[in-house]
Each structure stands twice: as structure tokens, then as C-alpha cells.
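Can't paste images in this forum, so I'm doing it all in text. The chain is below; anyone willing to post the predicted C-alpha cells underneath?
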Amino acid sequence: MKQDELNLVLDALKFCHGGEPCGTAEAIAVIEKALAQPEQEPVAYGMLDTMIGYDGRMMYVRLDKGQDGCTVPLYTTPQQRTWIGLTDEERSYYLQSASNVGWWQAAQFIEAKLKLKNGYAKENT
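Text version of the structure:
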């Protein structure tokens, strides 16, 4: 998230419900911590490519974005992701489905849903 976007969210959390505090102290603390960190710039850009007749993958790295098709930003430290959990409706659905399919399969469904929501898996279409 960019600094101005974080500031906008921070202001909304601090003054929601007509200026009354609304139990968002933890969210405010996380955003304030993120704002205190300098925004990291990528050191280079990369692209993975599979060569015809070659069993592996090649990684191309360029200093300029877009040069030779390199558009994936590369950083000196990994970028932090914000975890996306289940909504109350999703929790209710999976708890109810556990009685039909069993706890083991319900746990597998929950794990797959969390991976999908957090970008660790792609949806099967």
C-alpha cells in the first residue's frame, strides 16, 4: 500500500462513527508502524522464461522496468503481505459443511480457501 493510501485508511479508522473510537486500536497501530517504515523501491526487475527444448526455467534480470520484458519488481528484502482471513459467513459455511463432509475434508476446504484468498493458489476454472 502506498503512504497516502495508508494515511487515508488511518484517518478513517481514527475517526469512524462520527469521531468516536470504535475498537480499532490494533489496526491503527499496524498502520502507524507501516507508515514509519520507508517505502522500499525495487532494486531491479525480472522475468521467468522457459526456453524451448530446455527442461528448466531461466530468470532474466534488468535494472530498468520493461527492458526485455522484465516487469516483476525485485527487492532486497521480501515484501510483507497482509493476511486475509475468512469472513464470518465463510466460517459459518465451513462449520456447517463439516457436519456433512467431516472435519478433515472441511479443514482441507478451509485451507484451500485461505490459500486462494492470500494469493498462494489459483482458482480452478
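The CA atoms of residues 23 and 40 lie 30 Å apart. The chain is about 40% helix and 15% strand.
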